[in-house]
Protein backbone atom coordinates (compact mmCIF):
# COMPACT_ATOMS: atom_id res chain seq x y z
CA UNK A 1 0.00 0.00 0.00
CA UNK A 2 1.42 3.37 -1.04
CA UNK A 3 -0.11 6.27 0.96
CA UNK A 4 -1.28 9.42 -0.81
CA UNK A 5 -1.47 13.01 0.42
CA UNK A 6 -5.14 13.74 0.90
CA UNK A 7 -8.17 11.90 2.26
CA UNK A 8 -11.78 12.94 1.68
CA UNK A 9 -13.50 13.07 5.06
CA UNK A 10 -17.06 14.32 5.60
CA UNK A 11 -16.93 16.52 2.53
CA UNK A 12 -13.44 17.95 2.98
CA UNK A 13 -10.00 16.98 1.75
CA UNK A 14 -7.62 16.67 4.68
CA UNK A 15 -4.02 15.54 5.08
CA UNK A 16 -3.46 11.74 5.22
CA UNK A 17 -2.04 12.02 8.76
CA UNK A 18 -4.95 14.12 10.05
CA UNK A 19 -7.63 11.59 9.09
CA UNK A 20 -7.95 10.16 12.59
CA UNK A 21 -10.79 9.00 14.83
CA UNK A 22 -11.27 8.65 18.57
CA UNK A 23 -10.31 5.42 20.33
CA UNK A 24 -13.86 5.21 21.73
CA UNK A 25 -15.31 5.09 18.21
CA UNK A 26 -18.38 2.87 18.07
CA UNK A 27 -17.14 1.18 14.89
CA UNK A 28 -13.84 0.25 16.52
CA UNK A 29 -15.64 -1.49 19.39
CA UNK A 30 -18.57 -3.09 17.54
CA UNK A 31 -17.75 -3.10 13.81
CA UNK A 32 -20.51 -0.65 12.92
CA UNK A 33 -19.30 0.45 9.53
CA UNK A 34 -19.98 -0.19 5.85
CA UNK A 35 -17.38 0.08 3.15
CA UNK A 36 -16.34 -0.57 -0.44
CA UNK A 37 -13.25 -1.58 -2.35
CA UNK A 38 -12.85 -0.15 -5.86
CA UNK A 39 -10.01 -0.10 -8.36
CA UNK A 40 -8.78 2.67 -10.63
CA UNK A 41 -6.93 1.66 -13.79
CA UNK A 42 -4.58 3.64 -15.99
CA UNK A 43 -5.76 3.31 -19.60
CA UNK A 44 -4.84 4.82 -22.95
CA UNK A 45 -7.54 7.45 -22.41
CA UNK A 46 -6.60 8.32 -18.82
CA UNK A 47 -7.42 6.98 -15.37
CA UNK A 48 -10.73 5.13 -15.12
CA UNK A 49 -12.50 3.87 -11.99
CA UNK A 50 -14.13 0.49 -12.61
CA UNK A 51 -17.90 0.40 -12.01
CA UNK A 52 -17.65 3.29 -9.55
CA UNK A 53 -21.38 4.03 -9.50
CA UNK A 54 -22.23 0.34 -8.92
CA UNK A 55 -19.87 0.28 -5.95
CA UNK A 56 -21.33 3.47 -4.47
CA UNK A 57 -24.84 2.11 -4.97
CA UNK A 58 -23.81 -1.03 -3.09
CA UNK A 59 -22.39 1.20 -0.31
CA UNK A 60 -25.74 3.00 -0.12
CA UNK A 61 -27.59 -0.36 0.06
CA UNK A 62 -25.18 -1.57 2.77
CA UNK A 63 -25.85 1.61 4.79
CA UNK A 64 -29.61 1.13 4.35
CA UNK A 65 -29.33 -2.49 5.52
CA UNK A 66 -27.88 -1.24 8.81
CA UNK A 67 -30.24 1.79 9.06
CA UNK A 68 -27.32 4.21 8.75
CA UNK A 69 -28.49 7.69 7.73
CA UNK A 70 -25.83 8.23 5.05
CA UNK A 71 -25.75 11.97 4.37
CA UNK A 72 -24.24 11.72 0.87
CA UNK A 73 -26.02 10.79 -2.32
CA UNK A 74 -24.53 8.28 -4.75
CA UNK A 75 -23.79 11.20 -7.13
CA UNK A 76 -21.92 13.06 -4.39
CA UNK A 77 -19.92 9.95 -3.46
CA UNK A 78 -19.04 9.30 -7.12
CA UNK A 79 -17.84 12.91 -7.48
CA UNK A 80 -15.90 12.76 -4.20
CA UNK A 81 -14.09 9.55 -5.22
CA UNK A 82 -13.07 11.05 -8.55
CA UNK A 83 -11.91 14.26 -6.89
CA UNK A 84 -9.81 12.31 -4.37
CA UNK A 85 -8.13 10.34 -7.17
CA UNK A 86 -7.45 13.56 -9.12
CA UNK A 87 -6.05 15.66 -6.24
CA UNK A 88 -3.71 12.84 -5.28
CA UNK A 89 -2.61 12.39 -8.90
CA UNK A 90 -3.24 8.65 -8.50
CA UNK A 91 -2.95 7.05 -11.91
CA UNK A 92 -3.96 3.54 -10.78
CA UNK A 93 -4.74 1.98 -7.43
CA UNK A 94 -7.40 1.34 -4.86
CA UNK A 95 -10.32 3.46 -3.65
CA UNK A 96 -11.71 2.68 -0.18
CA UNK A 97 -14.91 4.47 0.86
CA UNK A 98 -16.04 3.84 4.45
CA UNK A 99 -18.98 5.07 6.52
CA UNK A 100 -18.90 4.34 10.23
CA UNK A 101 -20.19 5.38 13.65
CA UNK A 102 -17.66 7.35 15.65
CA UNK A 103 -18.05 9.03 19.03
CA UNK A 104 -21.30 9.65 20.92
CA UNK A 105 -22.30 6.47 22.70
CA UNK A 106 -20.77 3.25 23.92
CA UNK A 107 -24.17 1.54 24.15
CA UNK A 108 -24.97 -0.96 21.45
CA UNK A 109 -27.59 1.23 19.80
CA UNK A 110 -25.38 3.41 17.60
CA UNK A 111 -27.90 6.08 16.61
CA UNK A 112 -26.47 8.70 19.00
CA UNK A 113 -22.94 8.28 17.66
CA UNK A 114 -21.65 10.59 14.96
CA UNK A 115 -21.71 9.02 11.51
CA UNK A 116 -18.52 9.73 9.59
CA UNK A 117 -17.67 9.17 5.93
CA UNK A 118 -14.28 8.93 4.28
CA UNK A 119 -12.74 8.01 0.94
CA UNK A 120 -9.12 6.93 0.99
CA UNK A 121 -7.15 6.25 -2.22
CA UNK A 122 -3.75 4.64 -2.53
CA UNK A 123 -1.46 2.75 -4.87
CA UNK A 124 -1.91 -1.01 -4.60
CA UNK A 125 -0.66 -3.91 -6.72
CA UNK A 126 -1.92 -7.48 -7.16
CA UNK A 127 -3.68 -8.72 -3.97
CA UNK A 128 -2.32 -12.26 -4.30
CA UNK A 129 0.95 -11.12 -5.89
CA UNK A 130 1.91 -11.19 -9.57
CA UNK A 131 2.84 -14.88 -9.25
CA UNK A 132 -0.63 -15.63 -7.90
CA UNK A 133 -2.22 -14.07 -10.97
CA UNK A 134 0.14 -15.89 -13.28
CA UNK A 135 0.46 -19.38 -11.77
CA UNK A 136 -2.53 -19.60 -9.42
CA UNK A 137 -2.79 -19.85 -5.65
CA UNK A 138 -3.15 -22.63 -3.08
CA UNK A 139 -6.31 -22.68 -0.98
CA UNK A 140 -7.71 -24.47 2.03
CA UNK A 141 -11.33 -25.12 2.94
CA UNK A 142 -11.79 -23.36 6.24
CA UNK A 143 -12.98 -25.00 9.42
CA UNK A 144 -14.89 -21.75 10.04
CA UNK A 145 -18.30 -21.57 8.35
CA UNK A 146 -19.28 -18.48 6.40
CA UNK A 147 -21.61 -16.35 8.53
CA UNK A 148 -25.15 -17.21 7.60
CA UNK A 149 -27.36 -14.78 5.65
CA UNK A 150 -29.79 -15.37 8.55
CA UNK A 151 -27.27 -13.74 10.90
CA UNK A 152 -26.27 -10.71 8.81
CA UNK A 153 -27.81 -8.84 5.89
CA UNK A 154 -26.12 -9.35 2.52
CA UNK A 155 -24.16 -6.10 2.82
CA UNK A 156 -20.53 -5.07 2.92
CA UNK A 157 -20.23 -4.20 6.60
CA UNK A 158 -17.03 -4.07 8.63
CA UNK A 159 -18.02 -6.22 11.66
CA UNK A 160 -18.76 -9.46 9.79
CA UNK A 161 -15.24 -9.40 8.27
CA UNK A 162 -13.90 -10.87 11.49
CA UNK A 163 -15.33 -14.17 10.17
CA UNK A 164 -13.35 -13.85 6.92
CA UNK A 165 -10.24 -12.85 8.88
CA UNK A 166 -10.41 -15.99 11.06
CA UNK A 167 -10.59 -18.13 7.92
CA UNK A 168 -7.73 -16.31 6.21
CA UNK A 169 -5.51 -16.49 9.32
CA UNK A 170 -6.14 -20.22 9.61
CA UNK A 171 -5.33 -20.86 5.94
CA UNK A 172 -2.15 -18.78 5.94
CA UNK A 173 -0.99 -20.37 9.21
CA UNK A 174 -1.41 -23.79 7.58
CA UNK A 175 0.80 -22.68 4.68
CA UNK A 176 -1.91 -21.83 2.11
CA UNK A 177 -2.52 -18.54 0.33
CA UNK A 178 -6.25 -18.17 0.96
CA UNK A 179 -9.30 -19.79 2.57
CA UNK A 180 -12.52 -21.05 1.01
CA UNK A 181 -15.49 -20.83 3.37
CA UNK A 182 -18.45 -23.21 3.37
CA UNK A 183 -21.99 -22.42 4.45
CA UNK A 184 -23.24 -23.88 7.73
CA UNK A 185 -24.84 -26.57 5.49
CA UNK A 186 -21.44 -27.51 4.07
CA UNK A 187 -21.82 -25.98 0.60
CA UNK A 188 -19.17 -23.74 -0.94
CA UNK A 189 -19.72 -20.03 -0.32
CA UNK A 190 -16.67 -17.90 -1.23
CA UNK A 191 -13.11 -16.90 -0.34
CA UNK A 192 -12.34 -14.58 2.57
CA UNK A 193 -12.59 -11.59 0.21
CA UNK A 194 -13.38 -13.12 -3.19
CA UNK A 195 -16.17 -14.88 -5.04
CA UNK A 196 -15.44 -18.34 -6.39
CA UNK A 197 -15.98 -19.93 -9.81
CA UNK A 198 -15.56 -23.54 -10.95
CA UNK A 199 -15.37 -25.00 -14.44
CA UNK A 200 -16.72 -28.51 -14.96
CA UNK A 201 -17.50 -30.17 -18.31
CA UNK A 202 -17.04 -26.82 -20.04
CA UNK A 203 -19.69 -25.14 -17.86
CA UNK A 204 -18.88 -22.19 -15.61
CA UNK A 205 -20.42 -22.56 -12.16
CA UNK A 206 -20.58 -20.14 -9.24
CA UNK A 207 -22.47 -20.43 -5.94
CA UNK A 208 -25.77 -18.51 -5.74
CA UNK A 209 -26.04 -15.50 -3.41
CA UNK A 210 -28.25 -17.62 -1.14
CA UNK A 211 -25.06 -19.55 -0.25
CA UNK A 212 -23.90 -16.50 1.70
CA UNK A 213 -21.48 -14.95 -0.77
CA UNK A 214 -21.22 -11.25 -1.48
CA UNK A 215 -22.95 -9.94 -4.61
CA UNK A 216 -19.54 -9.21 -6.06
CA UNK A 217 -19.22 -6.65 -8.81
CA UNK A 218 -16.30 -8.55 -10.35
CA UNK A 219 -18.43 -11.73 -10.14
CA UNK A 220 -21.25 -10.00 -12.05
CA UNK A 221 -18.77 -8.63 -14.60
CA UNK A 222 -17.07 -11.99 -15.20
CA UNK A 223 -20.43 -13.80 -15.48
CA UNK A 224 -21.49 -11.27 -18.14
CA UNK A 225 -18.19 -11.42 -20.03
CA UNK A 226 -18.05 -15.23 -20.13
CA UNK A 227 -21.72 -15.52 -21.15
CA UNK A 228 -21.15 -13.01 -23.96
CA UNK A 229 -18.16 -15.10 -24.97
CA UNK A 230 -20.49 -18.07 -25.53
CA UNK A 231 -19.95 -19.91 -22.25
CA UNK A 232 -22.74 -21.43 -20.23
CA UNK A 233 -22.61 -19.69 -16.83
CA UNK A 234 -24.78 -21.15 -14.06
CA UNK A 235 -25.39 -20.13 -10.44
CA UNK A 236 -25.40 -23.46 -8.65
CA UNK A 237 -24.56 -24.72 -5.16
CA UNK A 238 -21.24 -26.55 -5.08
CA UNK A 239 -20.08 -29.22 -2.64
CA UNK A 240 -16.43 -29.50 -1.54
CA UNK A 241 -15.93 -32.68 -3.59
CA UNK A 242 -17.12 -30.80 -6.68
CA UNK A 243 -14.31 -28.33 -5.99
CA UNK A 244 -11.73 -31.08 -5.60
CA UNK A 245 -12.87 -32.58 -8.91
CA UNK A 246 -13.27 -29.34 -10.87
CA UNK A 247 -11.36 -28.84 -14.14
CA UNK A 248 -10.62 -25.22 -13.20
CA UNK A 249 -11.21 -22.91 -10.26
CA UNK A 250 -10.72 -19.19 -9.89
CA UNK A 251 -11.50 -16.33 -7.54
CA UNK A 252 -12.90 -12.94 -8.53
CA UNK A 253 -12.84 -9.66 -6.62
CA UNK A 254 -11.86 -6.05 -6.90
CA UNK A 255 -8.60 -6.73 -5.08
CA UNK A 256 -8.00 -10.25 -6.46
CA UNK A 257 -9.31 -9.44 -9.99
CA UNK A 258 -9.38 -12.93 -11.61
CA UNK A 259 -6.99 -15.16 -9.65
CA UNK A 260 -6.54 -18.82 -10.66
CA UNK A 261 -6.70 -21.47 -7.91
CA UNK A 262 -4.29 -24.33 -8.48
CA UNK A 263 -4.85 -26.34 -5.30
CA UNK A 264 -7.55 -27.01 -2.70
CA UNK A 265 -6.55 -28.94 0.44
CA UNK A 266 -3.70 -30.67 -1.34
CA UNK A 267 -5.87 -31.61 -4.37
CA UNK A 268 -4.26 -30.27 -7.51
CA UNK A 269 -6.76 -28.50 -9.81
CA UNK A 270 -6.42 -28.84 -13.57
CA UNK A 271 -2.95 -30.36 -13.25
CA UNK A 272 -1.83 -27.45 -11.08
CA UNK A 273 -1.99 -24.89 -13.88
CA UNK A 274 -4.58 -22.22 -14.75
CA UNK A 275 -6.93 -23.60 -17.39
CA UNK A 276 -8.16 -22.05 -20.65
CA UNK A 277 -11.44 -20.64 -19.32
CA UNK A 278 -9.67 -19.06 -16.36
CA UNK A 279 -7.16 -17.49 -18.77
CA UNK A 280 -10.02 -16.29 -20.97
CA UNK A 281 -11.81 -14.76 -17.94
CA UNK A 282 -8.57 -13.00 -16.97
CA UNK A 283 -8.01 -11.56 -20.42
CA UNK A 284 -11.65 -10.48 -20.91
CA UNK A 285 -11.57 -8.79 -17.49
CA UNK A 286 -8.29 -7.03 -18.33
CA UNK A 287 -9.82 -5.89 -21.63
CA UNK A 288 -12.87 -4.54 -19.80
CA UNK A 289 -10.89 -2.56 -17.20
CA UNK A 290 -8.54 -1.27 -19.91
CA UNK A 291 -11.37 0.13 -22.04
CA UNK A 292 -10.77 -2.35 -24.88
CA UNK A 293 -14.38 -3.61 -24.90
CA UNK A 294 -16.59 -1.02 -26.63
CA UNK A 295 -19.75 -2.66 -25.23
CA UNK A 296 -18.52 -2.18 -21.67
CA UNK A 297 -17.01 1.26 -21.76
CA UNK A 298 -19.90 2.32 -19.53
CA UNK A 299 -18.24 0.28 -16.76
CA UNK A 300 -15.42 2.84 -16.73
CA UNK A 301 -15.68 6.22 -15.07
CA UNK A 302 -12.82 8.42 -16.26
CA UNK A 303 -11.68 10.92 -13.60
N1 LIG B 1 -16.65 -11.60 -1.26
C1 LIG B 1 -16.18 -10.90 -0.22
C2 LIG B 1 -16.37 -11.41 1.16
C3 LIG B 1 -15.51 -9.68 -0.44
O1 LIG B 1 -15.02 -8.97 0.57
C4 LIG B 1 -15.32 -9.23 -1.77
C5 LIG B 1 -14.60 -7.95 -2.03
N2 LIG B 1 -15.45 -6.84 -1.96
C6 LIG B 1 -15.83 -10.00 -2.81
C7 LIG B 1 -16.49 -11.19 -2.51
C8 LIG B 1 -15.70 -9.56 -4.24
O2 LIG B 1 -16.55 -8.47 -4.48
P1 LIG B 1 -16.20 -7.38 -5.58
O3 LIG B 1 -16.01 -8.10 -6.85
O4 LIG B 1 -17.41 -6.50 -5.59
O5 LIG B 1 -14.98 -6.68 -5.11
Strand content: 25-35%
Helix-strand topology string: EEHEEEHHEEHEHEEEEHEHEEEHE
Q: Can you tell me the residue ranges where pLDDT is under 50 for at least 5 consecutive residues?
A: none
Output mean pLDDT. Answer: 97
Beta-strand segment tally: 17
Q: Tell me the radius of gyration.
A: 19 Å
Shape: globular
Q: Count of helices?
A: 8
The first-to-last residue Cα distance is: 21 Å
Q: What small molecules are bound in this structure? A: 4'-deoxy-4'-aminopyridoxal-5'-phosphate
- Could you say which structural class the secondary elements and strand pairing correspond to? alpha+beta
Largest sheet: 9 strands, mixed
| Helical coverage, percent range | 25-40%
Question: Would you kindly provide a written description of the structure presented here, covering whatever features stand out?
Answer:
The protein is α+β, with helices and mostly antiparallel strands and 303 residues long. 28% of the residues lie in helices and 29% in strands. It is built from 8 helices and 17 strands. Strands 8, 9, 10, 11, 12, 13, 14, 15 and 16 form a 9-stranded mixed β-sheet that branches. Strands 1, 2, 3, 4, 5, 6, 7 and 17 form an 8-stranded antiparallel β-sheet that branches. Helix 2 crosses helix 3 and helix 6 crosses helix 8. The longest helix has 14 residues. The radius of gyration is 19 Å and the shape is globular. The protein starts with 5 loop residues before the first strand and ends with a strand. The model has no long low-confidence stretch (mean pLDDT 97). The protein binds 4'-deoxy-4'-aminopyridoxal-5'-phosphate (PMP). 4'-deoxy-4'-aminopyridoxal-5'-phosphate binds next to helix 6 and strand 14. The site of 4'-deoxy-4'-aminopyridoxal-5'-phosphate has 15 residues, from helix 6 and strand 14.
